[in-house]
Amino acid sequence: MKYLVPTLALLALWQGIVWLGDMPAFILPSPLRVATALWSNAGLILQHAGVTLAEVLAGLVLGALLGAATALAMAVSPFARSLIRPALVLTQALPVFALAPILTLWLGYGLWSKVLMAVLIIYFPVASAFFDGLMRTPAGWLDLARVMGAPKRSVLWHMRVPAAIPSLASGLRLAAVYAPIGAIIGEWVGASQGLGYLMLLANGRAKIDLMFAALIVLAAMTLLLHRAVGWACDRAVARMG
Amino acid sequence: MSAPGLQVTGSAWLGEAPLFEGLDFRAVSAGWTCVLGPSGVGKSTLIRLVAGLDTGARFEGRVAASDGAPLADRVAWMAQQDDLLPWLTAAQNAGLGARMRGGRADPAAVGALLARVGLSAQSARRPAQLSGGQRQRVALARTLMEDRPVVLLDEPFSALDARTRAEMQDLAFEMLAGRTVVLVTHDPGEAARLGAHIWLMGPDGLSEVEVPEAPAIRAVDDPGCLKVQGELLKRMRAAA
């Protein structure tokens, strides 16, 4: 409901610009035209959206697992920390987008080059958020565990990991909006299906209304994904207390 | 369970600055020894040394039990923060020690202890659903579940309001009977009520002071206790 008024205002502004600026449809199609394109190409868009969604979900799961595992390794082992931390910062210094052509070259035009792009983009936020959480266990808890004679493994699983769940959750929320970016970039660089591919194709054929329709579906998909991940995270955090 | 006495002798430095020098602290076996002093004189360092915890200070000296046996595994710890894990219930928090050592606490024992601290009805609640006093009572139950002969208390009642604090003092004194208890506090009244021995710790080091005539725990309005409380506060102010 809270999105209704801003959405309507945006649509009105859009339509206003089209009318007042007398925009040709191949520069800026009217909202109505885009809606029509969306409706008449629904099957096509949905098919490509399904491909992109599969890439995003696979990237999200793999990236989250890899990121979380990296954070755990760094949290338990100072050696791993000294090894991985500089590498992690280095990967951030490197624009992941620039890697897209290489990944396509290595992994081909299929699903996996896009999945890997998504993984690369979300790996750092997940790993660093979870790692920060793991290193911020309240000192009083650690004192208590020490006096209780708890082994390190116990401290990790019973205190540090549960206490870091909210941090991991904020990393995953970010990952949910970043992952589609990776998949789309991958599709732009080289693909035969997916929303990114469809947008480029429509653009090349001056079907700007179709391009906008695909863009809207992509935005809706990302929002829904963000909502779903946020909901799951909220539940996990509530359980943690 | 025989509760040993304790002795800490030595000096500690924070960087190059001495925190305390030539310290000679003793705690009686099976009784309450209070360490009273303002913040920053090394009270916490002293009790953390006994607990085997990191102090951030360099310590040269000796921490020993009167029976000569090592202290590790014979100590329980309770701090100013209740340190309850927010995702566990009161009962699970009370049984945390066993869980942390890879086992499971005996539910009957946990139930009995929660009953003694008056929290039977709250055993399934999370810490967020408990008051500050109730949370500290769960922490006391957790300390007792460890069933250790030496119990170290680092200002455990400081964050409580006056009434709850007095109640907690009564409860803790009753439940920790027979154990060697070291209580660190900055509250002269608390030391005067609870201490079989009271040590005053100031910038110049540690000195043992006279305790009220009545045996601990003393009534809050016991004249001897109030007199000692007044004297302790005067000495603390003079030392500063």
Name the descriptors.
heterodimer; A: 241 residues; mainly alpha; MetI-like fold; B: 240 residues; alpha/beta; Rossmann fold; 6-stranded mixed beta sheet; 8 helices; 25% strand
Can you offer a commentary on this structure?
The complex is a heterodimer of chains A (241) and B (240). Chain A has one domain: MetI-like fold, CATH 1.10.3720.10. Helices cover 85% and strands 0% of the residues of chain A. Chain A has helices spanning 4-21, 31-40, 42-76, 78-93, 96-107, 111-134, 139-148, 152-189, 195-204, 208-240. The two termini of chain A are 29 Å apart. The model of chain A has no long low-confidence stretch (mean pLDDT 92). Chain B has 240 residues and is an alpha/beta fold. Chain B has helices spanning 43-51, 90-94, 96-100, 107-116, 132-145, 162-175, 188-194, 223-239; strands spanning 6-14, 17-27, 32-36, 58-65, 75-78, 150-154, 180-185, 197-202, 205-209. Chain B has a 6-stranded mixed sheet with strand order 5-6-7-3-8-9, sandwiched between helices. A 3-stranded antiparallel sheet of chain B has the order 2-1-4, covered by helices on one side. In chain B, helix 7 packs across helix 8 (223-239). The model of chain B has no long low-confidence stretch (mean pLDDT 92). The chains are: A mainly alpha (241), B alpha/beta (240).
When the domains of chain B are counted, the total is 2
Order of helices and strands of chain A: HHHHHHHHHH
Class by SSE composition of chain A: mainly alpha
Note the overall shape of chain A.
Answer: elongated
Strand order of the largest sheet of chain B: 5-6-7-3-8-9
Strand proportion of chain B: 15-25%
Distance between the ends of chain A: 29 Å
Assembly of the depicted chains: heterodimer
State the fourth-level CATH superfamily of chain A: MetI-like
The name of the CATH architecture of chain A is: Orthogonal Bundle
State the fourth-level CATH superfamily of the largest domain in chain B. Answer: P-loop containing nucleotide triphosphate hydrolases
* Helical content band of chain A: over 70%
What are the low-pLDDT stretches of chain B, counting only 5+ consecutive residues below 50? none
Number of folding domains of chain A?
A: 1
The average pLDDT score of chain B comes to: 92
Biggest sheet statistics of chain A: none
Q: How many β-strand runs of chain B?
A: 9
Question: What is the global morphology of chain B?
Answer: globular
- SS summary, helix count of chain A: 10
